[in-house]
Amino acid sequence: MKYNEKEFLIDGGYQHLALTRGFYIQRNWHENKLNLLFYLKLINKNKLVDIGSGSGCLLAKYSSYFTTLFGIDNRPHAIQYAKKLLKNRKNIFFKLTDLLKVSSNNENIVADLLVCMEVIEHFTLDDLQNKVFKNIKTYMNQDSYLIITTPNRESIWPLLEFILDKLKLTPPMINEQHQHIFNKVELLQLLKLNGFKIVKTGTFNHLSPYIPFQWISKVVCAFEVKYLKTLGPLIYTVVKLQDV
Predict the structure, then answer these.
(1) Comparing C-alpha atoms, which of 90, 75, 81, 101 is closest to residue 16?
(2) Which of 183, 209, 210, 240 keeps 20 to 30 A from 107, CA to CA?
(3) Contact 117, 37 (CB under 8 A)
(4) Of 232, 155, 179, 178, which is closest to residue 201 (Cα–Cα)?
(5) Nearest-CA neighbor of 116 among 182, 174, 226, 33?
(6) 3-state DSSP call for residue 171?
(7) Mapping DSSP to helix (H, G, I), strand (E, B) and coil, where does residue 47 land?
């Protein structure tokens, strides 16, 4: 992904460290995102592509559920960290790529499932429409599913973002990492305009991250994914390519 220069200072292991060493709210937040594939029952497929794979947490979690997994990212230090973390997982491969460059899928990888978790907010609307979505579609065919998650502008997310930035609990987000924050209607319209059809959508991570008992947090998160349509700080959307 192409972020501004300050973003490249983010540790390549940021997601892994947040998941394993963060405060319980931070751990729950990241764990709930990883469990989304289970909640949506989109596992036991052949090939998975994780777009913006970061430190490799999602690849690690699902390596036994997919025959082959690819992590793509444009940050060499993140790929280096993930390779070290997952050096014994022989079915996981990495690709250094930039979704702002045309035809990033030079290996002709076609995935059964693509995951794009909190990536699209790092791009401008113009780049998403003219470059990013076009490149993502090169990894898909008519049977592929794509899961997108992104912060929800019509939730408590703007307040959370403001607090996190003020307390410097995460790498800076407002006007730094994040170029555009969506609401659900805007996101769905953009996806349809760019050749995707909506399979399922909703929100999550509303109350579930704040529950100190992880098993209860998971139960609540599964409920949110199923029933919480608008309030959650994270939007999830499952899409396929529009019929030709």
Answers:
(1) 81
(2) 240
(3) no
(4) 232
(5) 33
(6) coil
(7) strand
DSSP string, 106-128: TT----SEEEEES-GGGS-HHHI
Structure tokens at 188: 């769905």
| Residue with the two structure tokens 């307040």 | 159
User: Distance from CA of residue 231 to its chain's centroid?
Assistant: 19
Per residue in 101-154, pLDDT (tens digit) is 876 677 889 999 999 999 999 999 999 999 999 999 999 999 999 999 999 999
Q: What is the pLDDT of residues 156-201, one digit of tens each?
A: 988 877 777 666 656 655 555 778 999 999 999 999 999 999 999 9
CA distance 122 to 129: 13
Q: Decide: residue 106, CB within 10 A, 0-12 exposed, 13-18 middle, 19+ buried.
A: exposed
The whole-angstrom distance between residue 192's C-alpha and the CA centroid of its chain comes to 19
- The tokens 């998403």 sit on which residue? 128
Would you give the distance in Å from CA 59 to the centre of its chain?
Answer: 12
